[in-house]
Amino acid sequence: MKALRYYGARDVRFEAMDDPAPQSVAEAVVKVEACSICGSDLHIYHGHGFSEDVGFCVGHEAVGEVVEIGSGVQRLKVGDKVMLPGAVGCGRCRSCLAGVVNLCEFGLGSCYGLSSKLQGSQAEAVRVPAADMNAVKVPEGVSMEQALLMTDALATAWFGVREADVRPGSSVAVIGLGPIGLMAVDSAWVMGAHVVYAIDPVPERRALAEQAGAIALHPDEALERIKADTKGRKLDCVVEVVGHDATVDFALRIVRPRGTVSVIGVQQSRRFPFPLERAFAAGLTFRVGTCSVPEELPALFPLVQSGRLKPERYISHRLPLSDGAEAYRMFEAREAGALKMVLLPD
Fold first, then answer.
1. Where are the alpha helices (H) located in the chain, listed in sequence order?
2. Do 67 and 31 contact (CB within 8 A), yes or no?
3. With bands split at pLDDT 50, 70 and 90, how would you rate the model's confidence at 49?
4. Of 304, 346, 261, 338, which Cα lies nearest the Cα of 38?
5. Closest Cα to residue 289, out of 163, 153, 182?
6. What are phi and psi of 148, to 5 degrees?
7. Tell me, what's the pLDDT at 219?
8. Contact, 172 vs 193, CB < 8 A?
């Protein structure tokens, strides 16, 4: 098969590699119909990978059709249309069965496309471990593109807003307006936010947030505008979707006393100087962590089916998989309005 393979910083190649095959009776193979590039894929693209391997297939967001199953797979059959959440679990322990795969009790939680241990899904086909749990049938009323965006991006956005304690009437800020940040804006409205501030330096992304009803601000003006609008009280809830020290610190500066900050941006520093004394005095709630996609899907499916959430509107490009290297370059450069880059096997 053909796949996008990682060889070093900014070196992703469309090349042949071995076809995937089940390695146990519980596994399946899925023919990929569409995959996409996640913001966290850029960490690998920049050479900050999670492994010293090279030549492995990247990517962790995909949908497709089951083409092969092991004899122990019970919930799937060949021909099923499925979505592949970016992280996988063992499928047997209490945590995984509850949908919290990042707390797998057997230590088998993993993510596609970080090393050769579990090849990625930016490919023509992908091996799915513990397929009964890790391949989710696409429900009626959900398109394949909508399902693709639920494999990570929409689920992460929803998780981040939920972790920010957004309630009916809340005042909210979202820092960082990539696809996940924009979906977080939408999610905040669904959860009942009274006002949403959307903060990003890129004008085109602020414009999309304004179309979604948010007050879109450049970072340089955001603090003073929020203080003026709230008469100094600042905001109930802040969702940080960047992962830089500066944006985490900024989130802590615009939240009110007894407010909540939720950090879902992939962290890019090993040590953050957390202002513990200030947070203690203000009684802040601070949450940081990664989403477990299966845990969020029961809430998201009806919202997408009913049209209350429309994640597909943030797809900016649909390109052949063979143009994957160019898609990564455009996404990194934020060129031509690049947001969600969907790749379609040739």
1. 41-45, 94-97, 131-134, 144-150, 153-163, 179-190, 203-211, 219-229, 245-254, 276-282, 293-305, 324-333
2. yes
3. low
4. 338
5. 163
6. -60, -45
7. 98
8. yes
Give the distance, in angstroms, between the CA of residue 267 and the centroid of all CA atoms in the same chain: 14
Q: What single-letter amino acid sits at 143? A: S
| pLDDT confidence of residue 176 | 97
Q: Supply the angle between the helices 293-305 and 153-163 in degrees, to the nearest 10.
A: 100
Single-letter amino acid, residue 89: G
DSSP lists the bridge partners of residue 238 as: 173, 261
Q: Angle of helix 219-229 relative to helix 245-254, nearest 10 degrees?
A: 10
More confident residue, 282 or 130: 130
Residue whose pair of structure tokens reads 């992280």 in the numeric block: 87
- DSSP per-residue letters across 235-250: EEEEEE-S--HHHHHH
* Cβ neighbours of residue 252 closer than 8 Å, sequence gap 6 or more: 238, 261, 275, 278, 279, 284, 286
Whether pLDDT at 275 is above 90: no
| Burial of residue 227 (number of CB atoms within 10 Å: 0-12, 13-18, 19+) | middle
Q: What is 22-56 written as a DSSP string? A: -SSTT-EEEEEEEEEE-TTHHHHHTT--SSS--SP
> Could you give phi then psi for residue 45, rounded to 5 degrees?
-55, -35
Q: If you ran DSSP here, which 8-state letter would residue 123 be given? A: B
Q: Is 59:37 a contact under the CB 8 Å cutoff?
A: yes
Q: Is 203 exposed, middle or buried (0-12, 13-18, 19+ CB in 10 A)?
A: exposed
Structure tokens at 108: 């088998």
Q: What is the mean pLDDT of the chain?
A: 96
Q: Angle of helix 179-190 relative to helix 153-163, nearest 10 degrees?
A: 50
Task: State yes or no: pLDDT of 268 exceeds 80.
Answer: no
Backbone dihedral region for residue 52 (phi beyond 0: left; psi -120 to 50: alpha; all else: beta): alpha
Share of the chain above pLDDT 70, in %: 99
Q: Are 156 and 87 in contact (CB under 8 A)?
A: no
In this prediction, residues 98-123 reach a mean pLDDT of 95
Looking at residue 346, what is its pLDDT? 83
Q: Note the pLDDT tens digit of each residue in 159-205.
A: 999 999 999 999 999 999 999 999 999 999 999 999 999 999 999 99
